[in-house]
Amino acid sequence: MVTRSVFPPVCAAAAACAVSYYGLFALEQGCGLSFRIFVPVLLSVTALLSFFEVTLPRTFVRYAAATGIGLVLGLSAHYAAADAPPGGLPAGEITALEGVLLDDPRGIQARGSIQGMGRIELAKIYGGNGLELVPGWRAARIRVFFDGENLPRLADFGRKSVLYVEGVFSGGYFRARSVHVLSPPPQRERARTAFRMTLLEKFSRHEWGSLAQAVLLGVRDNLDTGLAGAFTASGCAHVLALSGMHLGVIAGLLSLLLKKPLGLKKAALLGAVLVLGYVYLVGPQASLVRSLIMYLIGVLVIFKGFPRRGETILAMAFMAQLVLFPSSGRELSFALSYLALLGLLTAGPWVYELVRGKIPPIAAGPLSASAGAFLVTSPLSALCFGVLYPGGILVALVISPLITFFMVLALIWLFVDVVFPTAALALTMPLSVLYRTLQTVSGAAGLFPSIPVRGAPAVLAAALAALALLYIGQRKMSLMRKRLEPFG
After folding, report:
1. 449: how many CB neighbours lie within 10 A of its CB?
2. Which of 280, 313, 285, 283 lies closest to 299, judged by CA?
3. Closest residue by Cα to residue 177 from 185, 189, 169, 188
């Protein structure tokens, strides 16, 4: 029998999918079982294996079949995302590229200056001596870095523009010395870009506008560097990155507004259409796509009447996103997004069971979720950044509600500004006060000490040990409460 039915076979399939996808990547990099992006695999497998015990042969067959399917999906996604030299040329012989811009170009801080970055779907590759090639399907997309002075011009044209870039190819990305726009995007994309630029211009008139651009549209180019640094030092940098949390706020607001007049099913269907439109507007960022897929699966659950299980929806979304967008699995935001939600759904309830009754209920839930997400993401964060911010567990309890309130108020301001521009002035003062409050809180939160990390394996071992102790502790606490319930 299965002693715990919380995690069905689809979770075993997701774990196997992660093992084959990230395990092959680690082996190809020549690092064996190193702790590059393979960390989420170890954490997810460990968490899943501690939940179900299979003894009946019939049940074992179901889990074995699910594991086999997951392995095949992971292998397929891995080879679909595999890198190859464009057109078979050595990196040093590529001098120019031509192709379609896939993303809205965004600015990043590098080498003390702003640089632009975007991905190009290749149409032609140019080498020395006038060589011209058409790339193979495995190398159809290349990340391109260009000078910040080209950023405004490319942002005006927007994604789906056809570009010709000259520069140097390093083997992993292309650094452009010059950028030429060969043709503008299709009419639909031009309308989308024009709408985005209108929203950005509206927000840019106010001191809080750069924060609204970041949390609503994912544009952090104009964000105050002091504020961004304060959020990083407080361990809450993820709050500024457009993610599933932000989409969850928007979806929750839509549900609140539509559920009563339309009913649950119609509200869910219309909400799905609006959320799809929102993701199309801001762009398919990895963590945002994860939240979108989970929302669409949730809508399907509502229509079909399936049990709502967060871990099942998470597992299905993980496999679906890897199959649909194989290369997204190699993005850090993808791994951190899934790990954080895995921690919230697994370690979060364990922490809650231990602190329940010891701290006020209003704080127990958020604190448990924050601690669970931090614990599961800490090995990967240590590996990539070399530092941990444990103070973020507490700081997020204050900053996350403030950001959520800021988002809702900014959305209301945007609607009022379109319908009644004069009335929107009444909301600018509360938004300014909220913005300054976030500056103060994030600045003060930066005083929490950080922990420099030299070895990610040590952090992984400590995290696994903490997870095991949490699981054992909450099981004992749960059994003790059950024994005492008849006497309560």
Report:
1. 7
2. 313
3. 169
The answer to whether 396 and 239 are in contact (CB under 8 A) is yes
Which pair of tokens denotes residue 31?
């690092």
CA–CA distance, 196 with 70 (Å, rounded to integer): 39
Amino acid present at 274: L
**Mean pLDDT of the residues in the chain:** 78
User: Has residue 294 got a pLDDT over 50?
Assistant: yes
Amino acid at 69: I
**Token pair belonging to 422:** 């004069």
Q: How far apart are CA 459 and CA 379, in angstroms?
A: 5
Separation between Cα atoms, residue 108 and residue 117, nearest integer Å: 7
Domains contained in the chain, CATH given: 9-80 (no CATH), 86-184 (2.40.50.140), 198-243+324-476 (no CATH), 244-323 (no CATH)
Element (H, E) at 416: helix 392-419
Cα gap 255→249, rounded to integer Å = 10
> What is the pairing mode between strands 141-147 and 173-183?
parallel
* CA–CA distance, 195 with 403 (Å, rounded to integer): 24
What are the tokens at 199?
């929203």
Q: Give percent of the chain above pLDDT 70.
A: 82
d(CA 440, CA 434): 10
Predicted TM-score (pTM) of this structure:
0.81
Taken as a whole, the chain contains a residue count of: 488
Per-residue confidence band for 15, with pLDDT thresholds at 50, 70 and 90: confident
